[in-house]
Amino acid sequence: MSDLWRVPFASSDAVAARMSQLARKDTAPEMALRKALHLRGLRYFVHRRPLPELRREADIVFPKAKVAVFVDGCFWHGCPEHGRRNGGTNEWYWSEKIQRNKDRDCDTDERLKRAGWVPVRVWEHMPASEAAQSVQTIIKSLRPSAQLTGLDPAMRGKEPSTVARR
Fold first, then answer.
1. For residue 33, which of 61, 68, 67, 60 has the smallest C-alpha distance?
2. What are phi and psi of 72, to 5 degrees?
3. Could you count the other beta carbons within 10 Å of the beta carbon of residue 135?
4. Architecture of domain 23-148
5. What would you report as the CA-atom Rg of the chain, rounded to the nearest whole angstrom?
6. Residue 19: what pLDDT?
7. What residue spans of the chain are helical by DSSP H?
8. Where are the domains of the chain?
9. Phi-psi region of 26 (alpha: psi -120 to 50; beta: other; left: phi over 0)
10. Distant-in-sequence, close-in-space partners of 117: CB < 8 Å, separation ≥ 6
11. Most-buried pick from 21, 37, 41, 156 (CB within 10 A)?
12. Which residue would you say has higher pLDDT here, 121 or 11?
C-alpha cells in the first residue's frame, strides 16, 4: 500500500477526541457567511453538488447564477497566512494530506469552470461581510439586470446598508 494513504495516529487521547468532533458542515465561518448573504437578500442552497456527476459539494450554491462558494478552512486547505506550519506530530501525513486537498480544490475549480460555473473560494478567516460583498458583486456581474438569484422583491435596486466598503 502507498505511503500516501497512511492514516496518522493521534498523539494523545485528547487530540483524538478533539479531531473526531471537528465540524465538517455548518461551521461558524459558513454560518456567518450564510447570514451575511441572507441579509443582503440573496437566497441559496447549502451543501449541494454543483455538478451532480462530481462527488464534491460546495458550501453555498447559487444554481441559476452558476456560482459555487467554498469556505476553506485555513488548516485543511493550506492557507498561506494561517495554515499548518512544518514540523509537529505526524508531519509525514499532514503535509501530503493538505497538498492533496489543495490539488483537489484546483481540480474542482477547473471542472466547474469548464461546465460554465464560477467557483468562489474564501478563507475561513475572511470577515463574513467582506466575503458576502465579494459573492454579491460576482453574482451582480453575471446578472447585469440586477435580478439577483432569489433576491427579495423589496430589496431589488437597493444596496443593503450592511455592505462593508474598503
1. 60
2. -90, 130
3. 24
4. 3-Layer(aba) Sandwich (3.40)
5. 18
6. 57
7. 13-20, 28-39, 74-77, 91-114, 128-142
8. 23-148
9. left
10. 50, 51, 66, 67, 68
11. 37
12. 121
